[in-house]
């Protein structure tokens, strides 16, 4: 970067959100932008999460951009390597490489209210931008709990999102901490090669069968020759999930039948009644993320696997001590403990118009306008912001809705002309969030009887969208200027201080023009 480089838009992150934003900017005729990526390659969470067994739990044809369909997905639920390859393909197909600045981690973004622009410091230089699009994503910064004694553990420790491929697990005694989406894929992937695997489980997840299979050559040929068949497949997958939303958001008691299917999935593999009891959730299905696997339960039933139905509380040398007092000796610890979702670290690097960081502004909970913009932060937008997550469908649908909002946001700035910025009105942000939280009261995420990562430290669900993707798309189709204050940079002539006459001895100071 040059020392005084200025761009129209700076996009932070090169995962689905960042690359999607870049494509949409180009399609809107905006080419004066950069994509700042802290790593050495694009891909976001699908670059970072390369652990054994990593795959998506959303069908491939729905977990891809509508403007970049892939007729050649190899499986109905694709693995990490195929999704990462897809994102690399998007970067090449839409000629995004010249805009991407790799190894450029954002250290600080500060709003200049005089110039109406963002000053951005990165590990690879500085620049300014009229608009910032933050697409760092909620699943980008791993969370490792502060366990007493963990720093003195003599063995290997790493998070699932920072897998150490140089460490050989064969024959080792391994502890898996957590039972989330990553853990249920890792456990069956490493169970056969480790000597002993101990799973530390605070809360058992609901696990449904995974209807995964290879997509035949004939299907892929058909999708290539007749592109509308790919669109139809995507449409069917989307429609089924739209119909499921009512049960999650308005009628959680209807999920009882789904629970019975999940229990049958467990009972087929787990014959030991004691283990069954450990693995049976006591909360309503859907309250926490529903997981998909055909191999998780069979792996837990193997003789070299133990399930400790308690969280890890202390480390004493090679010995791990659970909250219930259970002690286990291990050689390696793998944390599958999730990410900083409701306390995203990037928020501590964004300084708004009053000198406060976004983290400080959100100290009582994340709040945004339509999941995109935040009060006190003009011309700043986030992709996958507060209350845009989904419990049953593809986040790509939500991302594309936010890209529509971004496109109209840029159009509105063009119509305003000159040096202008849009600042969300606090009243509009408050009104939007009150509506969202009122709808949230009836949802399974708030009433299901669990403590999930959807909830912040105050117990408020600032993560999930309490409606259909169709509703969200309608809500983000256009920018409502009544929800924003239009900021204008002062005219250079008017802003200049009035000239003063030189004070002569024995005379009063006279202002020019008096």
UniProtKB/TrEMBL annotation:
GO molecular function: flavin adenine dinucleotide binding; N,N-dimethylaniline monooxygenase activity; NADP binding
Gene3D superfamilies: FAD/NAD(P)-binding domain
InterPro entries named among the record's database cross-references: FAD-bind_Monooxygenase_sf (IPR051209), FAD/NAD-bd_sf (IPR036188), Flavin_mOase-like (IPR020946)
Cofactor: FAD
Keywords: FAD, Flavoprotein, Monooxygenase, NADP, Oxidoreductase
Record-linked Pfam families: FMO-like
Disordered, as annotated region: 490-514
Family named by the database record: Belongs to the FAD-binding monooxygenase family.
Known role: Catalyzes a Baeyer-Villiger oxidation reaction, i.e. the insertion of an oxygen atom into a carbon-carbon bond adjacent to a carbonyl, which converts ketones to esters or lactones using NADPH and/or NADH as an electron donor. Thus, can convert bicyclo[3.2.0]hept-2-en-6-one into the oxidative lactone products 2-oxabicyclo[3.3.0]oct-6-en-3-one and 3-oxabicyclo[3.3.0]oct-6-en-2-one. Is also able to catalyze the sulfoxidation of methyl phenyl sulfide (thioanisole).
Protein name: Baeyer-Villiger monooxygenase
